[in-house]
Design brief:
2 domains, TIM Barrel, 23 strands, 42% helix, seven-stranded parallel sheet
Length: 761
């Protein structure tokens, strides 16, 4: 055994899981048919790994929605409100992920947050006094049975107890320590059942060890694993970390009775220093993550082999990916339209399997791998990224004043309130409206040459007029044009900018059935023509209400693209920011008075260690956003939007963006963020989401009213906007229109109560 990976993409080569799952949700197929599709996907993926020469193949990394939720359900960490629905096991699982609504019976979904520093999301488990942790599920063991029956050398995969506790929510006065004994017993039972099946390895994922680890947290880790490892049975235990290094707890980890330790040497470069300074136990297997699981560029074999040769260990070494490969597309072979000079440098999941195998061959026997080594070296001598001297000159000319907007925000707020004369608690949406089947068909027809550009644009214009009338009918205060011309909020902008290339099938899972197709940054980035102006101006000319211009921010475009590895993040983001600055100023010239610069991914690439937050990220991310809007007039109102993250950690940085209004995802999180905003003396106007658009549930007017009243008890009423928590692209029109109507009606009701004499709201 010399090769493995941490995990594999689970949506299928052609997104088969997405389509089957959505068909199931729409009652187009039954549960048995969905499960059969899932089995075929797993089988194909295991076979692909086996065919590539991977020795130890992960099993249990497949998920219908999210691996953390899988582990929670395996261990009976399911809140009572979902069990009370009396659904099938799978439908109960989906209810936790998406919410549930059947007539008057309605339950919100569990919160969803970003998975560490990635664009993947996880469902937040909930611990309460009612939770009795015990092994109840069979998903992991059923999949192990499938793999063993196919002759797969299976490595079972499960989220570790420390990470599970660190990522969970605790209510009813409970705390992580309350569940340690139960978790120990449950994980021991997992090991016992795997041993009965003669499974050789269990991979326990503990990425939370890449965070800062306090003395109390170290004690929690020690107690969990001292207990679990006391009864290992015959299955070997691999402690797998990724997304960084384990500097705070390295000595604890290597001293315990783990059979293998998996370390990330791509993002966790400091792990090498830990090995050099402390050594690595000869009696443990080092699972070395040396092939990047988060980016799509080919591995430079010579550099990797040199690195492996200096590792300070006398024990066995298994070559692995740095993270699960779910963060990259399935295969580059499908990309028939990419220029060959680009495609030759790409490695998606299937290609990364081959890289691990070739690296292993070179590492074990350089002579046997000489041809692969020479071919790889030649590839790295031939990289030609397009360069634009004007872009570099523009960056060189930047000064501090280019990042500073005048006058100060409090003065702008007075000017804007006079300019817009909006009511208290102004209502709006985040931007997109449902991408209905006819919208997608219209885009497909243009791509296939079945309609002209004029016909395509006329269709979208009709859609814009229709959605404007609908927003007016609902009673929203600030309207949007619906974004019917946009395929994806990042891909659309990338297509309009120089410096990007695009895949046909480079889909990556974001959450559940939601996939994104990240652009690839290949050259210097610049704007060659206006991007959003035509649609925004068309909308403005077809309504008397305020129109909000919409664009994606520089940090999100960067974070949701595959970046170059030879250029700093700061350089790329600044290039994008300058391109977007041109767009913002063009919108302003055309009398678009409200402009939203979306940054849903602002927190996404925040380093996991707090000591690195400023120097490695915020020191360039925040200025990049300011650069986009710094030159607009005081009367132009700048909005931004952020999604599914621990915003409380970086509230001061968010305020420093110097936007005029910020909308947050908040509906699943019980508005806990609001208390953090108050505590931080947050100055920006805010729109905490009151409608969870990632769920098919329609919030009632009363539900929204209660949420609004919570807001006005905590925040100054003249600082509050009312909106959904994200764009409506993935929802149906029925869900969207009914929800928005309830939002507007609830807002109007609260306004009327505020204006009543002796109001106590």
């Amino acid at each position: 055994m010399t090769t493995t990976i941490i995990g594999f993409p689970r949506i299928g080569h052609h997104r088969e899981l997405k389509f089957a799952t959505e068909h199931y949700w729409k009652n187009k197929i039954n549960q048995e048919e969905l499960q059969q599709t899932a089995y075929q996907i797993r089988k194909n993926h295991w076979q692909a790994q086996q065919d590539a020469g991977i020795d130890l193949i992960p099993v249990g990394d497949f998920s219908f929605f999210d691996g953390v939720l899988d582990t929670a359900n395996l261990l009976n960490i399911v809140p009572a409100r979902y069990k009370a629905l009396n659904l099938s096991e799978l439908d109960e699982y989906f209810a936790q992920a998406r919410g549930y609504q059947n007539g008057s019976e309605t339950v919100k979904a569990l919160p969803m947050k970003k998975w560490f520093n990635t664009n993947y999301h996880y469902i937040v488990p909930e611990f309460s006094k009612d939770i009795n942790v015990k092994l109840v599920g069979n998903k992991l063991f059923n999949e192990i049975n499938e793999a063993l029956a196919l002759g797969i050398n299976a490595k079972a995969v499960i989220t570790g107890p420390y990470t599970l506790l660190k990522l969970s929510r605790f209510i009813d006065g409970t705390k992580p320590r309350d569940f340690v004994d139960q978790l120990i017993t449950a994980y021991q039972q997992v090991l016992a059942r795997l041993s009965e099946k003669n499974v050789k390895w269990l991979q326990i994922d503990e990425p939370a060890l890449s965070f800062d680890v306090t003395a109390a947290e170290k004690s929690l880790f020690d107690d969990l694993y001292d207990g679990i490892l006391a009864e290992k049975h015959t299955t070997k235990v691999l402690l797998q970390n990724y997304f960084g290094d384990i500097r705070d707890i390295y000595n604890d980890v290597v001293s315990k009775d783990f059979d293998g330790i998996g370390l990330d040497f791509v993002e966790g470069k400091y792990n090498n220093h830990l090995l050099q300074d402390n050594g690595f136990p000869a009696d443990k297997v080092l699972f070395a993550g040396v092939v990047n699981g988060k980016n799509i560029w080919r591995n430079h074999y010579e550099n990797t082999i040199n690195f492996l040769n200096q590792l300070n260990t006398k024990g066995d070494v298994v070559l692995s990916s740095s993270t699960s490969l779910l963060h990259v597309p399935y295969t580059a072979e499908d990309e028939t339209k990419l220029p060959s000079d680009v495609k030759q440098h790409l490695a998606f999941a299937i290609q990364k399997l081959a890289e691990i195998k070739e690296l292993d061959t070179i590492y074990r026997d350089e002579a046997a791998g000489q041809d692969a080594l020479v071919k790889n070296n030649d590839l790295f001598k031939n990289i030609k990224h397009p360069s634009n001297p004007a872009v570099h000159q523009r960056i060189d000319n930047l000064t501090d004043s280019d990042y500073t907007r005048l006058p100060k925000r409090s003065d702008r707020e007075k000017i804007q309130k006079k300019e817009f004369n909006l009511p208290l608690l102004p209502t709006t949406t985040i931007g997109s409206f449902p991408q209905t089947k006819d919208v997608r068909q219209n885009r497909s027809k243009l791509r296939k040459g079945e309609i002209t550009r004029e016909q395509y644009d006329k269709f979208n214009e009709d859609k814009i007029v229709r959605i404007l009338r609908k927003q007016e009918e609902i009673g929203l205060d600030v309207l949007v044009h619906g974004e019917y011309e946009r395929n994806d909020m990042v891909e659309y902008f990338g297509e309009k900018l120089d410096g990007f290339v695009f895949t046909q099938n480079g889909w990556v899972q974001s959450y559940g059935t939601r996939g994104v197709k990240p652009p690839i940054i290949w050259g210097d980035i610049s704007r060659t023509a206006p991007i959003t102006v035509t649609a925004s101006v068309f909308a403005k000319n077809h309504t008397d209400k305020l129109i909000k211009g919409m664009l994606t921010g520089p940090v999100t475009i960067f974070n949701w693209s595959f970046p170059r590895e030879d250029v700093s993040a700061k350089e790329s983001v600044t290039q994008i920011a300058l391109a977007l600055q041109d767009e913002v100023l063009d919108l302003e010239k055309h009398d678009i008075k409200i402009i939203q610069i979306d940054e849903p991914a602002l927190r996404e690439n925040l380093p996991l260690r707090k000591s690195n937050w400023d120097s490695e990220y915020l020191d360039w991310a925040v200025p990049a956003f300011r650069l986009v809007h710094s030159k607009v007039q005081p009367s132009t109102q700048i909005h931004t939007h952020m999604c599914y993250s621990e915003f409380g950690d970086i509230i001061k940085a968010i305020d420093a963006l110097d936007a005029d209004v910020i909308s947050f995802e908040a509906s699943r999180a019980d508005f806990t963020l609001i208390d953090q905003l108050v505590a931080a003396n947050f100055q920006t106007e805010v729109g905490p989401g009151v409608y969870d658009i990632h769920s098919p549930r329609i919030p009632s007017e009363q539900e929204v009213e209660d949420l609004i009243k919570q807001l006005i008890h905590k925040l100054p009423i003249d600082k509050i906007w009312i909106n959904p928590d994200c764009g409506l692209k993935t929802r149906t029109e029925k869900e969207s229109f009914e929800s928005l109507q309830n939002i507007v009606d609830a807002t109007k009701k609260v306004r009327s109560e505020i204006n009543e004499p002796n109001s106590v709201i």
